[in-house]
Amino acid sequence: MMRIFFICALSILVLASCNNSKQGESGSQRKGPSKHSNSFNSSVQAAMDSYHALTEAFVNWDSAAVVRQSAALKLKLDSINFYGFPPNTITAPIDTLALAKKDLQSMAANKSITDRRHDLNSLTQHLYDFLSLVQYDDKKIYLNECPMAFNDSIPGDWLSETDGIRNPYMGLHHPTYGKAMIECGSNKSTIDFTNKK
Description:
The protein is mainly alpha-helical. Helices cover 51% and strands 12% of the residues. The chain has one domain. The protein has a three-stranded antiparallel sheet with strand order 2-1-3. α2 runs antiparallel to α3 (63-78), α3 (63-78) packs antiparallel against α4 and α4 (91-108) packs antiparallel against α5 (113-133).
């Protein structure tokens, strides 16, 4: 009987530790109430889901998907609901979103994948600035950097909701490196207002 109890307790500990390590990989979620409305948080999350689909299109070197996902993300950015924000606090975030939308319009133009990656780098900075300005507190967001995104010497950034690296600048079909550099990069910074109430 004691042996069965010991085996059950050990199994529970192993499962709990697996769940904890998995949770650490996916980043932290908000603890406690958000300072933002549910409509704002859900509209920003929809935009971030669309942004992640865009970076995945870059990972796959899929130009047609990049164009589709850039158009989808622009619609999501247009739909961000600022309900609950005092009118005098939304000018800077709205201006930053306007710059992000210009990046997406440029990305959708008929250009090379390298030019589109430059647009991704600019878009990333504008979205990072937006999330910082509004103090987005629903999830922790990682700003990642590829040190050799352009000409193997100029860095490029992208956002992720996990601390794992899946590099949209090197991707899975790089003409020189193939998929060998998909995990090249590091966490450069984070946006983490999840503990603030």
